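Revision sheet: structure tokens.
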Amino acid sequence: MARRTKAEAAATRETLLDAAEAVFFEKGVARASLEQIARQAGMTRGAVYWHFRNKADLFRALLERVRMPFQELAEEIDAPGLDAVPLEAVRLACQRGFQRLDRPEYRRVYAILIHRCEFFSDIDPIAMQREMAKESLGALTDYFTAAHARGQLRDDLSPAIAAELLQSCLGGLFHDWLRSPEAFSIQARGMILVEALLQLVAAPRSSSG
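Predicted:
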């Protein structure tokens, strides 16, 4: 019975998050109410408060559901010997991230954060975006540092600058795509840009013979 209750509670929480996603996307976070979210979910406002302290807590939970820490993306890759080729790990992690972003639920939540979330109460969308960017930049710097230590990065380029170059490229692509996701495939264009940039920062291969 306890297991069933936990499963039901988890299912209710997911239903509320789905409802919040729909309402936030339609109305914006500041203008949406918990009453509207409860109605969208076919529940009472009390059910919302049972799972979430307030709207800010609900919004953070919605964002956490689609968070893609770069390090986790890289760790999910099942490719033997990848530790020895940090730049390839970066490429594959970017590819996995683009694949997820192409899913409607990921695209909607990030569109809410970027375009439909205003400052209110204890929600600071800029701070949230900054935190995510800092997390990504730190992981990228670690991978480029590893590439530099293996002689796989250009000698005239520091790992920090290489990481910032890729971070800026990804950020610009991401914002352009969210403004008009039907204009281009983020997977196709994203991988073209990532592979081109990685070629630019990689150490020249020595010719043999």
